[in-house]
Amino acid sequence: MSDFLKHCEHWIFDLDGTLTQPVHDFDLIRRELDITPGEDILQHLANLSEPIRSEKVERLDQLEHFYALQAKSANGVYSLLEELSHKQCNMGIVTRNTKAFTQLSLSVLNLSEYFPSECIIGRDDAVPKPDPQGIGKLLSLWAAPASNAVMIGDFKYDLLAGKAAGCKTVHVSTDRDMQWPELSDYRYNSLAELAKLI
Ligand SMILES: [Mg+2]
Questions:
Q1: CATH classification of 3-21+74-195 is 3.60.10.10, yes or no?
Q2: pLDDT score, position 23
Q3: Where are the domains of the chain?
Q4: 140 CA distance to ligand 1 centroid (A)?
Q5: Cβ–Cβ < 8 Å for 157, 134
Q6: Which of 19-28, 59-68, 73-82, 175-184 has the highest mean pLDDT?
Q7: Residue 171 Cα to chain centre, angstroms
Q8: Ligand 1 centre from 172 Cα, in Å?
Q9: Predicted confidence (pLDDT) at residue 172 exceeds the cutoff of 90
Q10: Ligand 1: centre distance to CA 21 (Å)
């Protein structure tokens, strides 16, 4: 275990599948929105013309509302956030979900207290991951150097965004097939495993 995470003061999380258990069925969402399997959903919507784009965004919002209400906490999330809060670390979220649904999920899980509104960057607040802009916004807000920050997520986009922002990256996943060693500085099976180490 590196001393880096023990002393790291700025923690940026992905939401879905990282702070929460993965419940989004992206294949179903693509089918509902008539998007080719594997295609980037937000990119697809951004390239549509009106009024189709607005109709599909509204349908996506309905689906995400449904998933937000079903949010279940990831293993170890309470112990990790409590420990980071105790250490007075900055904590934020950069998500491809909307800020409103993020706040709904956090409230369902009783996690709202850890994330002030300005520390939640949704897909309408910055160019979505894998672009590093959302992470950059949080680092500016905190006046924090990227070298003292870490991005934690369950998907490649989280790790790409973290690397592009100059942060360390943590990949948290129980799925051993989904590994990006070249993008991950650390890898853990759960937040519980990470919480025990800091
Ligand atoms: Mg995720």
A1: no
A2: 83
A3: 3-21+74-195, 26-69
A4: 23
A5: no
A6: 73-82
A7: 11
A8: 10
A9: yes
A10: 9
For the chain, give the number of residues. 198
Q: Residue 198 Cα, ligand 1 centroid: separation in angstroms?
A: 22
Token code pair at residue 109: 């899980």
pLDDT at 1 over 60: no
pLDDT band at 178 (very low <50, low <70, confident <90, very high): low
| β-sheet bridge partners, residue 153 | 171
Residue range 150-165, pLDDT digits in tens: 999 999 999 999 999 9
For the chain, the C-alpha Rg in angstroms (whole number) is 16
CA of 17 to the centre of ligand 1 (A): 4
CA of 181 to the centre of ligand 1 (A): 17
Which CATH number applies to 26-69?
Answer: 1.10.260
pLDDT digits (tens, 9 = 90+) for 2-54: 689 999 999 999 999 999 998 888 889 999 999 999 899 999 999 999 999 99
DSSP 137-189: HHHHHHT--GGGEEEEESSHHHHHHHHHHT-EEEEE-S-TT---TTT-SEEES
Closest C-alpha among 136, 140, 198, 130 to residue 166: 136
Q: 103 CB contacts (<8 Å, ≥6 apart)?
A: 112, 117, 120
How many angstroms separate the CA atoms of 127 and 135, rounded? 10
